Each structure stands twice: as structure tokens, then as C-alpha cells.
Amino acid sequence: MQLGMIGLGRMGANMTTRLIRGGHAVVAYDRDPAAVQRTAGDGATGASSLQDLVSKLTPPRAAWIMVPAGDPTDSTIDELLKILQPGDSIIDGGNSRWTDSKARYARCKEKGVSFVDAGTSGGIWGLANGYCLMVGGDDDAVKRVEPIFLTLAPEGGYAHVGPSGAGHFSKMVHNGIEYGMLAAYGEGFEILEKSEYTYDLHQLASIWRYGSVVRSWLLELLELALRSDPKLAKVKGWVADSGEGRWTVQAAIDEDVPAPVITLSLLSRFVSRQDESFSAKVIAALRNEFGGHAIKPE
Q: CA-to-CA distance for 81 and 86, rounded, in angstroms?
């Protein structure tokens, strides 16, 4: 089928290429003309603006948004709603907050435009391996664009998980789980690295991929990282978060669900960004005051 792809970063560009290889016709747009040119080189039809993209799509149109969450997504939807027609569809495949997706669904419905939220996982490996897709929206809206999802996902890697917001809610929790898994690998390998034994960490990551109960795709990626940089000397221990962990913790609080592992894994990311902890200074000062414990000078 025909699809408009808006946002040609690493994910959007790779998804466009996978769709073209799967026999779909893609009209592609990005604010960076060079990104459009690169994608056109892979077989997409380039567009110079959202208006141009919509004009090159045959009704009923389908436009997939792959831009940063928040205001960039909202402004793109607002502009599309000015030029799309009733019966057209918008798919948001970014890491949007599920509550925002429900609000966008309502906004689109007022215009007669279908809105589908597609939680998308796969990262830069999705081009070759496919993308896991958790899709929320009305049954008829999802069914109409389902050929897109079936091409992007590997076999068994796509499901229509519920109504509006359900796709991005499940992706949020998916990423919250990822936070905990990453933290556990990080802590475990630091214990190994600090121990009295001189472990070959790459060797351990390698053998744990086979038969071990902790084997996973994340472990395979760690093996790749340690293969090229055994001490991770080229990596600074500063860890960002893109929002999903925070939203998962908030959802757990709202639903009275204890989620200590995910919560602590989020907080550990905050710790990674501190060159100096004021909290630790307070504790050191108090220990000195009440017990005369030594203070390490600056």
C-alpha cells in the first residue's frame, strides 16, 4: 500500500527502506532536505513539505509520524489536520506518552481522521530484524493500515493490543522493563569488574548467550560492545532517559502497583549524570558532625 513517512531519522529512514523492500510505495518528508534525498535514493518519493507529501498520496491517505514526542508530534498533527480529509489516517510511531495519544485520537476524530498509536521497538537493528509493534486504535482504522505493520514487524512481532492509547501504554511499560534489565546487567558486570578476579568480561558476556537463563538480545548487544571495547574505555558513564521510565513509574504510582526495580533503575540514571553529589556532601558533613568521621577533601 501507499504511505507517507514523516521524520527520516535513524528509525524513520530505516522503516522507510524496509517498507520499500516489502513492496510498499512511500512518500517521505523531513525538515532536512538531505535526509529526503537519501531516502529517495532508496526508492522513496521525496516531498518538500507536509502539503507536498499529502498531495502525493492517494485518498484514503495514511501518514506515519516518526518525530520526537511532545510538541514536535503535536505540531505535526496540527498541520496535517489542516490538509488531510475525512477517511485519512495518522499513525504515531514515536515514543509518545499514552495520555497524549488519547488526546490526539479525540482531536483527529473531530476531523474525521483516524489516529493509530504504534508503540515501536527495534532500534537501529529494525531494518534487518524487523520492529516489534504494539498498536492501539479503532479496529477498522488499524485493519486498513495493517499491511504496513505486517511488513515492518518480524513474524509474530505485531499485535493490535487495544483501543486508543493502548499501543503507547504497552510500549511505555516495555521500556520501563528495559530500564530494569539494563540496570541489572550494569550492576552485575560492575561487580565482576571490581572483584578480586581478573575476568574477561567479553568472554562472560559471550558464553552467557548460550544456555544461560540471563541470555537475551541485550546481552548479545553487550557482547558486541565489549568485543570492540573490552574495558568500555570509550564510553562515559552518563545515561540519558527519554521519558518512558518516568511515565512507567508514574503509572505504577497511579495504579498502586509496587515497582521498586524499575523505579530504582530510573533513579540510577539520574545518579549517572552527577559529577558531584550534593546529597553525598550532606551525608559526609553530618557523619563528621555527629561522629567525627573523616571528610575527604576536595
A: 10
- Report whether 14 contacts 127 (CB < 8 A): yes
Full 3-state SS string of the chain: CEEEEECCCHHHHHHHHHHHHCCCEEEEECCCHHHHHHHHHCCCEECCCHHHHHHCCCCCCEEEECCCCCHHHHHHHHHHHHHCCCCCEEEECCCCCHHHHHHHHHHHHHCCCEEEEEEEECHHHHHHHCCEEEEECCHHHHHHHHHHHHHHCCCCCEEEEECCCHHHHHHHHHHHHHHHHHHHHHHHHHHHHHCCCCCCHHHHHHHCCCCCCCCCHHHHHHHHHHHHCCCCCCCCCCCCCCCHHHHHHHHHHHCCCCCHHHHHHHHHHHHHCCCCCHHHHHHHHHHHHHHCCCCCCC
171 classed as catalytic: yes
* Average pLDDT over every residue of 59-82: 97
Overall average pLDDT of the 215-233 stretch = 95
Active-site option among 171, 223, 276, 281 = 171
Q: What pLDDT, in 10s, does the model give residues 14-54?
A: 999 999 999 999 999 999 999 999 999 999 999 999 999 99
**CA distance linking residue 130 with residue 152, whole number of Å:** 6
Catalytic residue among 178, 190, 255, 281: 178
Residues in the chain, total: 298
Whether residue 143 lies in the annotated active site: no
Q: What is the pLDDT of residue 92?
A: 98
